[in-house]
Amino acid sequence: MHPFRTTSLRRAAVALALTLVASGSAVSATTAATTASTPASASGGHSSGGQSSAGATKRAWFTSWAQSQQELAPTPLRDQSVRMITHLSQGGGALRVRIQNTFGTTPLTVDAATVGRSGQGGAAIEGDIRTVTFDGRPEVVVPPGGEVWSDAAGLKTRAQDDIAVSLSVSGTVTPGRHTGAFRSNYLTAPGSGDHTAEASGSAYTQTVGSTYLVSAVDVHNPALKGTIVAFGSSVVDGTGSDNCGPGCTPDGTDHRWTDDVARRITAELPGTRQLAVANAGIGGTTSSAACPRNPAGIRGLDAASRLDRDVLDLHGVTGVLYYYGTNDLANGCAAAQILSSYDEVFQRLRAAGVKVYVTPITSRPGYTDQNNLDRHAVGTHVKKRNNCDGTCDGVMDFDQVLKDPLKPNGINPAYDTGDGVHANIAGQRALADFVSLPMLLSSTTRR
Questions:
Q1: What would be the CATH architecture of the domain defined by 71-217?
Q2: Which residue, 76, 108, 351, 439, is most buried by CB atoms nearer than 10 A?
Q3: Residue 13: its pLDDT value, please?
Q4: Residues of the signal sequence (predicted)?
């Protein structure tokens, strides 16, 4: 076993690195804190409360879970309830949820909402169920293209809790969704009405593999130091995280590398230096909107187009883990186009006080020679001076982790799901183990 696979030794290594950071021997970082925002009412634009703010001194709300909306579901909801299971990276004394109608063409009416701890049996809830309100009211209408953050709900939570968010949707509306939840979520039958307060979950007879309407959960926890957002395509979203190899059945859910990073933070960082982790990956997307073979289905989902909604409108964001480029190359982008998109996104993040950590583009056996030349050019730029030649704040070389040591333009067979592109559960864990926690924590200090 690698020595740093043991928690005690890894804690010792982290403690030493944190001492170096505190003494000034390590690179400094940016404060990208968010002040505690008041509950947002439904709007047709982005909530201003989530914008990161360098120099903010008092923070209370941090985004602890996220899944970015990307399209409309194939089937409308008709006077029925949905129960979406969210997995918190950190807990707190209260929580609030974001509901989005980003891709909707008609108003979304939510006439009841609750939160509670997800039970062991499907849609069941264990313990208290808390009513969720919006500006003090039990119902809210979210206009097409709009979103809303709820009021605070007094449910105490802990790191790694699964929280069920239940919404009763009135009328007929096609919901926005995040396509791959990598877990089961639940719907009641059409026409069944409000079952948000039901603990047994027996009315939730339909199962879906997507996450409907709910795109983020905040926790109220002033002890946290920040939220780290992983931003990218399917390699961030979690494709492969349900694959443990032929003939193997995964043990539970939440095996993305970002989930493993969150667990490492809880286990290895001191209690006074804890961070939340949010996942803003969308499969199939690109950093650049200009790749000539970008399909119509990802139009408007490039990194720059969704940066505000999926990253900067979250709360307490101090750092971003940027893992893009694999689809850019496959869709015909050259190195110059990819790096141009990097520069735009990195400038906006850093202007908002958010630190940016970047991985070189990871390998694919299907890349052409020109793809690999472009991949090498992007990787060389990213690794230059260990800070993208001064345009980012640090490097996490996931290509070094995943590549086959004998065939470096392909994935290590031990980490390959079989498609040559995505990491299996072992690969996800290897990526998480490679991430420097002191680097992440340095995002909470000034540059």
A1: Sandwich (2.60)
A2: 108
A3: 54
A4: 1-28
